[in-house]
Amino acid sequence: MPKQEREVEEQPRQNDWDLKELMERLGGDEEFLRELLVMFREDARMNLEKSRKAMAERDYELLMRTAHTLKGMLRNLSMGAAAESAAALEVAARETQAGDSKELLEKLGKELEGILPEVEAHLAGVRS
Amino acid sequence: MRILVAEDDAISRTLLERTLQRAGYAVVSVENGAQAIAELVKHDAPRLALLDWIMPEMDGVEVCREIRRRKEQAYTYLILLSSKESKGDIVVGLESGADDYLTKPFNVDELKARLRTGHRILELEDHLVEARESMRFQATHDLLTSLWNRGVIVELMSHEIMRSRREGSCTAVMMCDIDHFKSVNDQYGHAVGDEVLREVARRLHNSVRSYDTVGRYGGEEFLVALNKCNPGSAISRAENLREKIAARPIQTTNKPVSVTISIGLALSAEFTKCTVEEIVHHADMALYAAKAAGRNCVRVAQPPGIAKPIEEQPKETQVLAP
Questions:
Q1: Which one of B10, B22, B105 has the shortest CB-CB distance to A43?
Q2: What is the pLDDT of residues B71-123, one digit of tens each?
Q3: CB distance B292 to B271 below 8 Å
Q4: With the C-alpha atoms ordered B5, B7, B8, B11, is the resulting torsion angle positive or negative?
Q5: What interhelical angle do A60-76 and A98-124 show, nearest 10?
């Protein structure tokens, strides 16, 4: 599908969403990609909220878990940079490093806020 | 082939499910370790499992430990899914009983290749179990007739006699011998002789209850133990066995062969002071008496001191005084 290839090539690099790698993992199943993105849209927001709440309450155990979950889904969807922020946040939370955790959570929040519109656009069938 | 996927993150789980279904697996998926255990201990549980390392309730490592602790199950090939990369964690995972581990996000080809390894291990295990079962059968059964072999029938009978003594019941011990078997072999050859042995074994086996035991004691000798046998009906049941053999000729590939058996019967309740070997010996003596009385008949071993009048016995079943 030439249209698909062109879209992938034109994909903005700043958020480092490797859609090509993801499509390979999904065996080129566009319908399945949509299904996963719908899940991601909800789960990412929910886990980000949970993480912020855990940070505010200094609940590092919970923060570690939510960061772990985010890391897993981001890696599965080939959202490399955000996944690594989540991984770093998981480590910082495990070591209860307040400063690092706060900083990394902010970074992750920004990255997710960059990715989510892209996901929305993909779901709407329009590239931003 | 069925496979269990235990993963709390919905996206990872869906991704695995779909990938595995595409590869031809029937996927059972759960969201935590406790559910994974519940699925894996079921009777027809999947034998392959992909377990996420970090899950609520019980993590993947704990699931591995629990499954390996339950040794009675058929082998389950366990693969841990981990985003941990340090060597220390890998060692912890493998020492918990996992067979392999896979780093997330997985590569489809690597996942398939690792599952193929799992298949090979499971096949190997199945072959070993099969071989062990076959050897166990051969070690306990007579090769020709598939009845219990001599060692096992004596052992089983001993247990039954001990039990009937505890419970105050009776085990009827019957030594059965094919009459003039040597002439069957001489006349028709050993192949036909074997067919006769197999058919006699089959008829004896089919004529007793499922909780009775029948074994091949020697060449053409069979030992039958009727457990929890009412002493009053033992003779008629022995007669019934004798009749089952004598009633119709045995169809062999060569031609029909008519054979009969003689039976020596000893009731454990009447030999309370005797060892199992002595009871078998008394049944054997009764068998000799049956042979001496013209064969194709039942003789009952009589304990010392109790001599019943011969007239009370059925015509074909006379008491043998020791």
A1: B10
A2: 767 899 999 988 755 667 888 888 999 999 888 888 888 999 999 999 999 99
A3: no
A4: negative
A5: 40
**Is ipTM > 0.90 here?**
no
In whole angstroms, how large is the CA radius of gyration of chain B?
30
How many other CB atoms sit within 10 Å of the CB of residue A12?
11
Would you state the pLDDT for residue A6?
46
Q: Are B8 and A75 inside 8 Å of each other by CB?
A: no
A123 in Cβ contact with A24 (< 8 Å)? no
Query: What class, spelled out in words, does domain A17-123 have in CATH?
Result: mainly alpha
Task: Give the nearest partner residue to A73 out of B12, B22, B54, using CB atoms.
Answer: B12
Q: Which domains does chain B have, with CATH numbers?
A: 2-139 (3.40.50.2300), 150-320 (3.30.70.270)
User: Which one-letter DSSP state was computed for residue B106?
Assistant: P
For residues B8 and B60, give the distance between their C-alpha atoms in angstroms, rounded to a whole number: 11
- Taking contacts as CB-CB distances below 8 angstroms, the residues of chain B near A36 are 11, 14-15
Angle, vertex CA A24, rays to CA A23 and CA A26, nearest 5: 60
Q: B102 in contact with A at a CB cutoff of 8 Å?
A: no
Q: Which residue reads 């009633």 in tokens?
A: B247
Residue A39 is which amino acid? M
